[in-house]
Amino acid sequence: MRSFRLFLWLWLLLLLPGLPAAQQQGAIASAHPLATEAGQAILAQGGNAFDAAVTVGAVLAVVEPYSSGVGGGGFWLLHRARDGFEVMLDGRERAPLAAHRDLYLDSKGEVVPGLSVNGPLAAGIPGQPAALAHLATRYGRLPLARTLEPAIRLARDGFPVDEHYRRMAEWRLQQLRQWPASSQQFLIDDAVPPLGALIRQPQLAETLGRMAEQGHDGFYRGAVAERLVAGVRRAGGIWQLQDLTDYRVVEREPVRGEYRGMKIISAAPPSSGGIVLISMLNQLALFDLEKQSPVLRKHLIVEAMHRAYRDRAEYLGDPDFVQMPVAQLIDPDYAAGLVRDIQLDAATPSRYEPASDAGEGRDTTHYSIIDTEGNRVSATLSINYPFGSCFVVPGTGVLLNDEMDDFSARPGVPNVYGLVGGEANAIAPGKRMLSSMTPTFVETDQGVAVLGTPGGSRIITMLLHAILALADGGGPEAWVSRPRYHHQYLPDAIQFEPGALSVEEQRQLRAMGHRLKPLDSTYGNMQALFWNRESGSLSGASDPRGIGRTEIK
Ligand code: DON
């Protein structure tokens, strides 16, 4: 009888909302099942969301080498439950100190194709190692030796090649073959590895081991730093030891806005993400979107995208180098001015002819984490193009980014994503290149969403679609799977996924003067979570376009 009563009590305890915290670990959505699993294991060992963020970021660096890595950078948006403190860790790459504004131009002032995309000259100074060390020491409670352990193990013992790896390696095969250390690390016999083959990265395991022992300095000083600089210079790059010893994470105040009673907390410069997202939402708040016909709704959304991306090109860059009218750009009154020339039946033409198409968005990565204490992390990380610059620095296992291409190499000349820029995003020594990465929190009456995605220039409009789906009452599944279309001012065209616009909508949009560019595949890889404050329940979803996994425990 006594044991039955005890059983009854335990059963009742489990039913009480908010109380079963002891049984719960938290929720993680990431682009790779091995990363989600490793993060959950860290939560189970008593780590908080920030510890899990170190683990997930480091494992992704190993198992998704085409997307992010310790040779790259990113942004980590944090919410600390204890005091509500919110901050964005800026672990963005910086231009080397020997870089200058005309780095990628020939003697006639023309951009040299490929120079900012392939090889060591394309690489900015990595920020991810510094950000992981900062997360661990400032916000986590477990030592790096513990949180980096899963990544070290996977780098040493290997992970199996999947279809996605094969596609990415195929795409960058010629460049990976250029550099012996890259071919050795990511190819087998100089060819794309077969499905299931193990990719072992012993030198990367060693580099991660030094970070586990020495934290920040394990990467930016000593043997690793010396090898990085020597290897880059031998292959034609311009890094110096001072580039590495000078590198610091910057804590920045997130950008904040509102849409239909929801609070948006998002990435600050040097990401354009939060500003462009809030500008689009501010513009759309001036129309009753839900009352419009489907085609008029799409027209208005595209017109808002056009205006926000026009401002991106003109004003945005590294806040430590340029003065930007941020407060104005996210002000609802300013949005009212922007929408004044929107016509309900005609597209606004962009000022120039399209110079180039936006590149495909399949690399870069995002993960979202919520722990049972209510700590949250929304992180988007990148090495830019698939496999970054394709250059592995010999003796380090570190694959370098090609983030320098996110600078404007010359005013008006588009980068691999078709984005243009001007003075604000020109190259300068030590400057951070403008990004589109948009890790975001959305606070609603019911709870909090944590979300983000890769996808180059299209990242910000993917976040817009997700937030509009949330405003329409949908849950994480709806946010990550809603069909996507995109306009970025230049090129002057609506790009859209197969099925995102019906044949009739396409006809009507063309009649308004919109130029349409159907894409032959889908794009993006969103990872989203929702914590329902009332019920205490966690839910989430990984984009059906990718191989990611959401685990709630
Ligand atoms: O920071 C940026 O905006 C880009 N380097 C992100 C690149 C990206 O998302 C690639 N695609 N999926």
What can you see in these coordinates?
This protein is α+β, with helices and mostly antiparallel strands and 553 residues long. It contains 20 helices and 20 strands. The strands form 5 sheets. The protein has a 7-stranded antiparallel sheet with strand order 6-3-2-10-9-1-20, covered by helices on one side. The chain has a 6-stranded antiparallel sheet with strand order 7-8-13-14-18-19. Helix 3 runs parallel beside helix 6 and helix 14 (273-284) runs antiparallel to helix 15. The radius of gyration is 23 Å and the shape is globular. Bound molecules: 6-diazenyl-5-OXO-L-norleucine. Residues 361-364, 382, 384, 403, 406, 435-437, 454-456, 459 line the site of 6-diazenyl-5-OXO-L-norleucine. 6-diazenyl-5-OXO-L-norleucine is lined by residues 361-364, 382, 384, 403, 406, 435-437, 454-456, 459.
What's the short version?
By secondary structure, this protein is α+β, with helices and mostly antiparallel strands.
